[in-house]
Design brief:
Blueprint lengths: L1 E4 L20 E4 L5 H11 L16 H6 L5 H10 L4 H8 L8 H18 L8 H9 L4 H7 L4 H14 L5 E5 L12 E5 L13 E5 L10 H16 L3 E6 L14 E4 L4 H12 L5 E4 L5 H12 L9 H8 L1 H11 L6 E4 L2 H11 L3 E5 L9 E3 L2 H15 L4 E5 L5 E9 L4 E12 L9 E3 L6 H17 L4 E10 L2 E8 L6 H8 L3 H9 L4 H4 L1 H6 L9 E7 L20 E7 L2 H11 L9 E5 L5 H13 L3 E4 L1 H9 L5 E2 L10 H6 L5 E4 L7 H14 L3 E2 L2 H15 L8 H4 L8
Parallel strand pairs: 4-7, 5-6, 5-8, 6-7, 20-21, 20-23, 21-22, 23-24
Antiparallel strand pairs: 1-2, 3-4, 9-12, 10-11, 10-12, 13-14, 13-16, 14-15, 15-18, 16-17, 18-19
């Protein structure tokens, strides 16, 4: 069964109704012996961040959700049955829409709902093996069973797992024959069920289990699948049996020939433990990799280790140390590395007190997330309180992190390899947008274009210290912010990052393959001897590599396009050239942002950006562009000797900037956000720009890069070069 993955929480204000236009960002697939089992496995594969019984149901919306297709329709159907509605009543309501549901599916869902209620009415001490097996054959998870019996948290789920073992209600594994019985299948799919016969006896070869990244979503997509695949390729070449666990049918990791054995299973503690116990039952030497699949497997690392699973590479304790603000803060103090002051909170009161202690503005986020999920910049107590009332569900018993936000800082991403003895820096990527824009939404350039040599040396030294202090074995990603010459560490992630494929292509060195070999005990002195001996970073040759995000604004026309700490891009592209301007221009073209070569540029910047806007505007004028600006920005430009055309803001009168956009008079928009006072104007401008397909830039740093890109485009034809040609003089490690 396939279910789409939606992320409307990333796009407040978007129409959540489903129709002919695709709005999902990914999908999951589950296999079971029955529809009920497959559906329930697929539902828990979605990783919504909610507990088994925490469907966000609004009773007053029941009729609306049943009648109109919506991502939560399935949850509301279950809720309707829990309230006592019949299949005929629900079918009649869903049939009001052309996408009506066949009653057969409704009967299946009702049977699951009835079984959950029935087994919840039997105490855990009185339940029989047959009753438990019936529930498991319907795909009902241990967590949901525990909730029905009033057992909460990890202890409740563990109690159900112990009960299953005691009653011998254990999963077996079936094969999906990839050769349709015509030939012997060497790479079948495997899936769990609660039948009697097991069809997938494990081998006695030494093996590595690789946990995939689950459904594609904003912040965790094919970048991590790339790492998982390269790990499987490298370790298979080195003689290991590779075993992949994933539930995403879109990815290469779930191709039949990527690994030796593929388990199409949800990435939950229950399902992953089942796979491990099955593979380990042969007595084979076994290890598990959790570093490559993003946050999903990382969240399982400590529970898996506590259950006795051998995690190879960086230890779960080191991963947890990097996320634990108190312990990590103490480590940073011992290393004497600057870090923005921070606090942790598990209540509204603690959050407000912590924010006032570290000083506004603050960056507030839950721990153990990717893609900046539920992350905001707060400027006052009211914003912190509002955040805590909505974000606590995503914390899942993890504290909320509060950091002082560094304004007007340059952000830098570093990817590095560490084997416990040596550290090799793979790339120092300079963000084109300032700090505060999520790294996944910021364009970046490798190598850095204008960071001072002494600052780069400091970044390299801090990277080596942190990798060694955290006992990293494999990949580590570190985010730094540079403010007035001081380098601050923002966060350390001892795992693969979304920039690994980008850096690998820019350097010609397959980082994930090297990291996987480090995890099984090999050394950097063997894998990258030249870099270890010289202490140099991996090189990109004479070319610049620019990574730019791709946004889905066309799918959500009502959504504000302003960028912030929560990631919204759904993909990325790379531009390559022998100069930064051309590389940036090529990346923008690939991302669908075609930079104009002539015409009119609209400028409206906030007070913080007014100091730098005149130099940027002069550069545009020198390239032949006409300028249009709102009153405040126009005054600054006029004082600098420029002559922009003044235009009204939307609320000031007409003709205003939106009228100019609709009249095809604007070719590029530079509009940096100014806060709540001008929110209406800014959102109206950006919405009109999306509808008119006009490139819109919301940071001054990105506007400067765009100016360089336009200059390069005006000078002539874009160059074209193959990666194989760029890296022909280098011997890639495979």
């Amino acid at each position: 069964m396939k279910i789409p993955k939606w992320q409307f929480e990333k796009f407040p204000g978007a129409d959540e109704g489903l129709g002919p236009q695709m709005k999902s960002v990914g999908e999951v697939m589950a296999i079971g012996r029955t529809f009920k089992e497959a559906m329930m496995k697929a539902v828990r594969s979605l990783e919504t961040g909610k507990k088994a019984t925490a469907d966000d149901i609004e009773p007053r919306r029941l009729t609306q959700r049943l009648v109109t297709p919506h991502p939560d329709r399935l949850a509301y159907i279950r809720y309707a049955f829990e309230r006592g509605m019949t299949v005929r009543e629900v079918a009649r309501m869903t049939s009001m829409d052309p996408t009506s549901m066949d009653p057969w599916f409704l009967y299946q869902i009702k049977q699951i709902t009835d079984e959950i209620k029935a087994i919840g009415g039997v105490s855990i001490d009185a339940v029989t093996a047959d009753q438990l097996r019936t529930a498991k054959r319907m795909g009902i998870s241990d967590e949901r069973l525990a909730a029905g019996w009033g057992l909460t948290g990890a202890a409740g789920t563990a109690a159900v797992r112990a009960l299953r073992k005691r009653l011998n209600v254990q999963p077996v594994y079936k094969l999906v024959d990839t050769c349709a019985a015509e030939f012997e299948s060497y790479t079948p799919y495997l899936y769990s069920c609660y039948d009697e016969e097991d069809e997938a006896a494990p081998t006695t070869r030494k093996k590595i289990l690789i946990l995939g990244s689950g459904p594609n979503r904003i912040g965790q997509g094919i970048e991590f699948d790339y790492c998982c695949c390269h790990a499987a390729f490298a370790l298979r070449e080195d003689g290991y049996e590779t075993v992949m666990v994933n539930c995403n049918p879109e990815t290469v990791s779930t191709d039949y020939d990527t690994s030796d054995r593929l388990y199409f299973e949800p990435l939950t503690l229950e399902d992953v433990l089942g796979v491990y116990e099955h593979e380990a039952s042969s007595g084979a030497e076994i290890g598990m990799i959790v570093q490559f699949g993003g946050q999903t497997p990382l969240n399982l690392s400590l529970p898996l280790k506590k259950a006795g699973v051998p995690i190879i590479g960086t230890s779960p304790e080191s991963i947890d140390l990097a996320e634990d603000r108190k312990r990590f803060g103490k480590l940073i103090e011992e290393l004497k590395i600057p870090q923005p002051e921070g606090a942790m909170a598990t209540s509204v009161e603690e959050a407000v007190a912590g924010a006032n202690r570290v000083g506004y503005p603050v960056l507030v986020r839950p721990s153990y997330v990717l893609g900046g999920r539920a992350m905001v910049i707060a400027y006052d107590d009211e914003a912190v309180v509002r955040y805590m009332t909505t974000a606590i569900e995503f914390s899942q018993e993890r504290p909320v992190l509060i950091d002082h936000f560094l304004e007007d800082a340059t952000e830098v991403d570093v990817d590095a390899l560490c084997d416990g003895d040596d550290v090799v820096i793979a790339g120092i990527m300079q963000h084109i947008e300032e700090a505060g824009i999520h790294s996944g939404d910021s364009s970046c350039v490798l190598p850095a274009v204008d960071i001072a040599a002494d600052v780069l040396r400091m970044i390299r030294e801090y990277t080596r210290q942190l990798a060694m202090a955290l006992s990293v074995r494999g990949l580590v990603n570190i985010q730094f912010a540079i403010q007035r010459g001081t380098v601050y560490v923002i966060e350390v992630n001892p795992r693969a990052s979304r920039t690994v494929p980008y850096v690998s292509k820019a350097t010609g060195i397959p980082l994930a393959k090297i990291a996987s070999r480090i995890m099984v005990g090999r050394k950097l002195k063997e894998l990258l001897p030249e870099q270890v001996a010289s202490g140099k970073d991996l090189e990109t040759g004479s070319h610049y590599f620019v990574k730019s995000p791709v946004f889905p604004w066309g799918k959500f026309p009502g959504v504000d396009t302003v960028l912030g700490p929560e990631m919204k891009s759904t993909g990325e592209v790379m531009g390559v050239a022998d100069n930064f301007g051309e590389a940036f221009a090529k990346a923008q073209i690939a991302a669908g942002q075609v930079l104009p070569l002539k015409g009119t540029i609209f400028l409206s910047v906030n007070d913080r950006d007014k100091e730098g806007v005149a130099a940027l505007a002069r550069q545009f004028v020198e390239m032949g562009f006409h300028l249009v600006a709102t009153h405040g920005t126009a005054m600054v430009l006029e004082q600098a000797g420029l002559q922009p055309e003044r235009v009204y803001k939307v609320k000031e009168g007409r003709p205003n900037v939106v009228d100019l956009i609709k009249g095809d008079r604007i070719q590029l928009i530079v509009n940096t956000p100014s806060g709540q006072d001008t929110f209406f104007d800014e959102k109206a401008i950006r919405r009109a720009a999306v509808l008119a397909r006009i490139p819109t830039i919301t940071t001054l740093a990105a506007a400067r890069a765009a100016a360089e890109g336009i200059s390069a485009l005006q000078q002539g034809t874009l160059s074209v070069v193959a990666l194989q040609t760029l890296h022909a003089d280098r011997v890639a490690v495979v």
